[in-house]
Design a protein that fits this description.
Layout (H helix, E strand, L loop, with lengths): L7 H8 L3 H10 L6 E2 L5 E2 L3 H14 L4 H12 L6 H33 L24
Antiparallel strand pairs: 1-2
Helix pairs in contact: 1-3
Length: 139
Amino acid sequence: MTPAGLRTGEVAELAGVNIQTLRYYERRGLLAEPARSLGGHRLYPPDTVALLTVIKAAQRLGFTLDEVADLLATGRRHHPAPDLRRRAIDKITEIDAKIADLTAIRTALAEVVDARCDSLTNCTCADCPIPFVTIGGRE
C-alpha cells in the first residue's frame, strides 16, 4: 500500500526547490502543514507541487513572500481577488522606479569608466564624475 501523498524530497524535487525552502514556506503559512505517515514523515498532497510553482512564479514577478501569502489567503477563501490587478499595477510602478534607479546608476558608472577614475577618495582624473570626492572634506 502506497502512502497518500508525496514525501518532502519528492515535492522539493518535482517543484525545483530545496527541502529548506519547502519547510520555510510551511513555517510561513504558505503551505498547509502536511499529514504525517505512521513513521512521522511529512506527506504533502500532490497539488503542493502546483502551489509551489505558483509561489515561485509570483516571486519571479517581483512579489514578496508576504504579498504572495496575502494573495494566496484571498484565493483560499474562494473569493475572487479583484485587487490582483491593482497589485500588479502597483508592482509595475515599483519595477519602473527600480529600472529608473538602475538606469541612473548605470549612467553614473559609465561616466566613471569613461573618465578612467581610479579612486573614490583621491581620484586623479580630470572632471571626476564621482560624487563622493567631497566626503574627505575637499570641495
